Amino acid sequence: MTEKIQAFLKNIWPDFHKHKPSVHLNSFHTFTNYWRLWTLSILILAVTALLPLCIVSLINYQLIQQSVDTELNLRAERLTATAKSAITFFMEERLDALIFTVNEMGYDRLNDNARLADILKNLKLGFGGLSDLSVIDKEGNQIAYAGPFNLEGKNYKNQSWFLEGLKKKNFVSEVFTGYRDVPHMIIAVRSLKPDGSSFILRATLDTDRLIQKISSYKIGSHTDVFLVNHDGVLQTPSKTYGPIFTKTDLSLSTDLDKTDMITITSDTTNRNVLSGHSPISTSLAGTPFILVVEKEKQGMAQVWLALRQSINWTVGISVFFIVFVITFASTFMVNKLYRLDKAKAETMLQMEQNQQLASIGQLAAGVAHEINNPLAVISQTAGYVKDLFSFKEEDLDASEIVENLDSILEAVDRCGTITQQLLGFVRQFDVKVNKISLGKMVSEVLSFHKKEAEYKKIQITVSIPDSIPDMETDSGKLQQILVNLINNAFQAVDEGSCLDILGSQIDDEWIELVIQDTGCGIAEENLVKIQEPFFSTKQDKMGTGLGLSITYGLVKKLGGKICVQSTQGVGTSFTLTFPITLENEESA
Amino acid sequence: MKHIDILIIDDEKKFAAMLSKRIQLRGYTAGVCYDGETGLKWIKENKGAVTLILLDLQLPDIYGTKVLAGIKDLHPDIPVIVLTGHGTEQDRQECDRLGAYQFIHKPLKIDTLMATLENIREHSK
Q: Structure pTM?
């Protein structure tokens, strides 16, 4: 089980975090910064996947919020409208009753206390909510009174409701305590005496009845319905603002005359409340009341909260899942890439070493021929000397024997020279950085191709001026580069072709070497591919496709540059540029 | 026109000279040509009066296989032994196709050559 977990962790945890650029392997790596690759992959995938999710969620959020808000507004508006019409009716009904009474009875009958008491009794039976009735002349003197309080003979001329009542035909007062010290309100109707002067029929309304009416609209614990006057003083008790006559800080609409308007405002500063304001006005008289309905959103928006929570959860889980999958996939891919790239780089390094041996192998043919010929001479000459002893024992000519032995020695010397050359050549692979003469190295490499060039009638021109300074470089690598390129040239050319090797000094720091042949050339579409490993046009499986790719790598390691120009059927030209001193020694 | 036993076509002068001397010491006749063109010319002029031809592949003028083809054009029944320093497998196949008698790598053992010559002479009688 733990093994499975470890394998899982290995897959999800990047194993390239240990990747350190190695001088040898680095030139063969396709990528160098795997962390960047990894983070980039995660970032791009995450943005691609999460951005649409977030946008859709936000839109969803907004839409739901909007629809919930609209619904809440509608509900508040509906409640305000219903309560308003009920209260308006309550006021109107009582005003109507007074107007009816005044018109029906007339002043003569109303100024009689007993009559008035009858009327009060009937009104109480019909409508309720009235506690007393009184008739007041235009000087404010109470003419008649019916009711439980002893208010007869009082003068009201200084009271504001009286002054207002005189001005208007019908009048509804605010709630006040008055002489009785009990919250009540007054409705009054003005009419004319037979002598043409005004009088007022006044009724006192208990606020209890009004409060009861309003309370019936307080549905649920999140709703508050109450009346205030134009100054914001409570006319009925409020759950939020306190008992009657408390001054509230409500910001009331300035357009209080527009009585048919319902204003819904969303107060988010203190409490999350939707409030509906509407001035109350009857068809008979205006009132000083403003209806206020307050609904706490919190209470109404349970559905929205539940929805929001489920959206949040869904988005949260999705984000977590997406990030997890993306991380897993990125790690998996980059890990795979890293391992493959590493394996490739290691193979290429191995190949570079193998190719070094293979390039000697390619030379072997030339060397064998160079040695085989003198060996054949030695064999025949020695055989001949032996023959002399076998066939001409009697008249042996000492000078002939010496002459033949000399030619054997000469042939042995030839072989010796060749083996020395070969040894010198192979020894270069052990030596690291040293000073070498470019001209000497080119002629060394060419010496193994001398015979082949003769047979194929290849005209080799080497032009490397002596003035070119010795260069400090890894001679083994430089030699391998030359062997590879010259071998390639020899394979590309037919009989009678030319191979030119031209050296020149560009400036104090750089040397240029051009190797050009008049061989078959490289097709244009292949030119870009020649430095890729395992690319070969030799279809007879003779080529590994590694020669040029390794050559390019070697030139890079020596701090040089290589470029190729080729025309199919005309020839190929490789231009190499090397630094005279190897500054960044990479060959360690 | 004199019939000879072995015609050596090889550009390595010392080798050819020594081989020719050794053949003569053994009582046979030998001729030497140092390049392909001279060789073909000799065969043409002497109307193939030779028992066996020893042919090197690496010749300065014409490549050995082409010389072989030339000889076979003129006298398809003359046996030709191809002698080479480092002939490839491809060369061997090409020589077999062209009808070479043998394909031998240098160095050459004189006794083997003599035995082959005797063998050919026996068969042609």
A: 0.48
Characterize A407-429 residue by residue with b for buried, 16 or more Cβ atoms within 10 angstroms of its Cβ, and e for exposed. Answer: bbeebeebbeebeeebeebeebb
The DSSP call for residue A538 is -
For residue A409, what pLDDT band results from cuts at 50, 70 and 90? very high
Q: How far is B4 from chain A (nearest CA, A)?
A: 20
Identify whether the C-beta of residue A584 lies closer than 8 Å to the C-beta of residue A536.
no
The CA–CA distances, whole Å, from A554 to A27, A352, A475, A561 equal: 9, 9, 11, 10
What count of CB pairs under 8 Å joins A to B? Answer: 64
- Euclidean distance between CA atoms A82 and A74, whole angstroms: 12
Token pair in block for residue A317 = 């889980």
At A271, the pLDDT band (50, 70, 90 cuts) reads: low
For residue A342, which phi and psi values (nearest 5 degrees)? -65, -45
Most confidently modeled of A106-115, A215-224, A523-532, B95-104? B95-104
Lowest model confidence (mean pLDDT) among A138-152, A163-177, A397-411, A417-431: A417-431
Cβ atoms of residues B95 and B81 within 8 Å: no
Residue A521 three-state SS: coil
Task: For residues B106 and B103, give the distance between their C-alpha atoms in angstroms, rounded to a whole number.
Answer: 10
As a whole number, mean pLDDT of residues A142-150 equals: 83
Distances (CA, A) of A561 to A10, A120, A380, A503, A576: 40, 119, 51, 14, 6
Candidate from A380, A391, A404 with C-beta closest to B19? A380
d(C-alpha A278, C-alpha A293), whole Å: 9
Please say whether the beta carbons of A505 and A469 come within 8 A: yes
3-class secondary-structure state, position A500: strand
pLDDT at residue A140, rounded to an integer: 87
Residue type, A184: H
Question: How many whole angstroms separate alpha carbon A337 and alpha carbon A564?
Answer: 30
Q: Does residue A134 contact residue A142 with C-beta atoms inside 8 Å?
A: yes
Instruction: Please give the Cα distance from A421 to A500 (Å, whole number).
Output: 23
- Cα angle A377-A379-A382, degrees, rounded to a multiple of 5: 100
Residue A344: which pLDDT band, with cuts at 50, 70 and 90? Answer: confident
- d(Cα A62, Cα A442) in Å, to the nearest integer? 78
DSSP state of A141: B
CA distance A415 to chain B (A): 14
* Candidates A372, A384, A404; nearest CB to B85: A372
Q: Quick check: A136 and A202 in contact, CB under 8 A? A: yes
pLDDT digits (tens, 9 = 90+) for A10-33: 766 777 766 666 666 666 777 777
CB within 8 Å: A384 and B18: yes
Contact B21 A384 (CB under 8 A): yes
Neighbours of A250 (CB within 10 A): 18
CA distance A541 to B85: 25
Q: Which residues of A touch B12 (CB under 8 A)?
A: 373, 376-377
A304 inside 8 A of chain B by CB: no
Q: How confident is the model at residue A586 (pLDDT cuts 50, 70, 90)?
A: very low
If you measure CA to CA, which chain B residue comes closest to A375? Answer: B107
Nearest Cα residue to A506 out of A465, A553, A552: A465
Interatomic CA distance for residues A478 and A183, integer angstroms: 114
Whether residue A376 and residue B63 make contact (CB cut-off 8 A), yes or no, is no
Put residue A46 in one of left, alpha, beta given phi > 0 → left and psi -120 to 50 → alpha.
Answer: alpha
Neighbours of A458 (CB within 10 A): 21
